[in-house]
Amino acid sequence: xxxxxxxxxxxxxxxxxxxxxxxxxxxxxxxxxxxxxxxxxxxxxxxxxxxxxxxxxxxxxxxxxxxxxxxxxxxxxxxxxxxxxxxxxxxxxxxxxxxxxxxxxxxxxxxxxxxxxxxxxxxxxxxxxxxxxxxxxxxxxxxxxxxxxxxxxxxxxxxxxxxxxxxxxxxxxxxxxxxxxxxxxxxxxxxxxxxxxxxxxxxxxxxxxxxxxxxxxxxxxxxxxxxxxxxxxxxxxxxxxxxxxxxxxxxxxxxxxxxxxxxxxxxxxxxx
Length: 272
Ligand SMILES: C[S@@+](CC[C@H](N)C(=O)[O-])C[C@H]1O[C@@H](n2cnc3c(N)ncnc32)[C@H](O)[C@@H]1O
What we know:
By secondary structure, the chain is of the alpha/beta class. It is built from 10 helices and 10 strands. It has helices at residues 2-9, 15-19, 22-35, 37-56, 77-83, 96-104, 120-126, 134-141, 166-170, 181-198, and strands at residues 12-13, 63-67, 86-91, 93-94, 109-113, 154-158, 203-215, 221-226, 238-245, 255-264. Helix 5 (77-83) links the parallel strand 2 and strand 3 (86-91). Helix 8 packs parallel to helix 10. The longest helix is centred in the first third of the chain and has 20 residues, at 37-56. The mean pLDDT is 95. The structure holds S-adenosylmethionine.
């Protein structure tokens, strides 16, 4: 309990990230991980393996950048630091765990509070007044700027694509009367992120929630939703199952399960 409180106190985030619900979401993910650690283990291991496979394809090994590093559950930080003299762990909410890695491997691992959308400062300023039409446009037109730490030889977008616009979208008063607004923000922010990734020169690995299932206790699939096509992504190079929210985490009636996809270089180019 005290350890958790200490971790919270050592977490850094911008005012915009707090105002737009991203800090709260970060702690919610950490709490869920603590509750369902065993259910997530295979997914986290598969993510780490995919990242290391991407690193192996990399012709240059000076700089690595991880976007959406979070608590680094799915990031093989030590292994990346063995391969790259500079590893930057970037997130809009900088966890105590990421800071611990930087302290443990000084000079090799560093951290950055960084907004991958480039939209959050402005969105937080206009949060109460922005219309349901303008919010997705703000994500679509925003410029995240250059990568923190300089142009990387290896870049990982770590299971954050679907969250970039969704979480802030839910925090907008305009979403109260327009239930589809968070999803439109998610789509706009994800496509902008893919465009930004496509402009990078290094090797890239993209990890994304690809398909969502609701599965009854006896195993019957109640609902399937393909997510990656919304962002204009081609089919993933590989997928694996993530038991994201076993009963009763999300619902007392069904397990929420994802197929997580990995896209190796070149990252999918958003179409349409
Ligand atoms: C599902 S978590 C990914 C898991 C994380 N790699 C881990 O192992 O804990 C998504 C991460 O994306 C981050 N994120 C959300 N929006 C972001 C943004 N605009 N810029 C950078 N990171 C963002 C969240 O703070 C969160 O840590």
